[in-house]
């Protein structure tokens, strides 16, 4: 068995992926990460359904709560066509969750702004999670938090190795 603290070299390019998998040492932290990723994947459709939204609409609201975006920018973030992005914005506007406003610097462009009801919809649904995460985070020392952050940022990069477009 491999020591989980040592870096595992990938199998030679001509070896099957199972050669790497056979040497894999599952650890508690890797189990916890898989469980976390599974729970996060299950959360989005449930929260969207509770809010009467599609997953794309919920994701759009999450982006727009952070900052106003142009329709094309939002479409890129959602990884949908501009036509599909326009449909998402139209549906959110029909719910009263977003408005379109002229861009301050370029009147030919518009910005999609989340409304108070749109912000409340997202925050109300996610507040139990935010409260629990804040409590958990407060239970760590600064040093522990730094280790958790390093691990999670590394895990994000590992996920991106699968989801990033090929170079």
Describe the structure.
This protein has one domain (41-162): Winged helix-like DNA-binding domain superfamily/Winged helix DNA-binding domain (Arc Repressor Mutant, subunit A). By secondary structure, the chain is mainly α. It is 65% helix and 6% strand. A two-stranded antiparallel sheet has the order 1-2. The longest helix is centred in the first third of the chain and has 24 residues, at 28-51. It has helices at 17-22, 28-51, 55-66, 71-78, 82-94, 116-138, 142-163; strands spanning 98-102, 110-114.
Please give a quick description of this structure.
Helix 2 (28-51) packs across helix 3 (55-66), helix 3 packs across helix 5 and helix 4 packs across helix 5 (82-94).
What is the strand and helix layout of this fold?
Blueprint: H1 17-22, H2 28-51, H3 55-66, H4 71-78, H5 82-94, E1 98-102, E2 110-114, H6 116-138, H7 142-163
Antiparallel strand pairs: 1-2
Name the features.
167 residues, mainly alpha, Arc Repressor Mutant, subunit A, two-stranded antiparallel sheet, 7 helices, globular, disordered N terminus
**What is the CATH homology-level superfamily?**
Winged helix-like DNA-binding domain superfamily/Winged helix DNA-binding domain
Mean pLDDT, as a whole number?
88
Helix-strand sequence? HHHHHEEHH
What is the helix fraction of residues, given as a range? 55-70%
- Assign the CATH class: Mainly Alpha
Low-pLDDT runs of 5+ residues are: 1-5
Query: Any idea what the shape is?
Result: globular
Count of all domains: 1
| Number of helical stretches of at least 4 residues | 7
Query: And the CATH topology?
Result: Arc Repressor Mutant, subunit A
Kindly report how far apart the N and C termini lie: 33 Å
Largest sheet: 2 strands, antiparallel
What does the oligomeric state look like here? Answer: single chain
Query: Roughly how many Å is the radius of gyration?
Result: 21 Å
β-strand amount? 5-15%
């Amino acid at each position: 068995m491999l020591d989980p603290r040592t870096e595992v070299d990938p199998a030679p390019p001509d070896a099957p992926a199972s050669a790497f998998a056979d040497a894999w040492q599952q650890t508690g932290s890797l189990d916890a990460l898989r469980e976390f990723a599974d729970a996060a994947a299950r959360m989005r459709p449930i929260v969207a359904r509770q809010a009467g939204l599609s997953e794309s609409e919920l994701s759009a609201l999450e982006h727009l709560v952070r900052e106003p975006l142009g329709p094309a920018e939002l479409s890129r973030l959602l990884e949908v066509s501009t036509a599909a992005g326009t449909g998402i914005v139209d549906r959110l506007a029909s719910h009263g969750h977003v408005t379109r406003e002229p861009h301050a610097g370029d009147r030919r462009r518009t910005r999609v702004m989340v409304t108070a009801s749109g912000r409340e919809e997202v925050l109300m649904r996610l507040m139990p999670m935010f409260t629990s995460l804040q409590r958990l985070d407060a239970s760590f020392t600064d040093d522990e938090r730094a280790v958790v952050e390093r691990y999670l940022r590394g895990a994000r990069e590992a996920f991106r190795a699968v989801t990033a477009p090929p170079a």
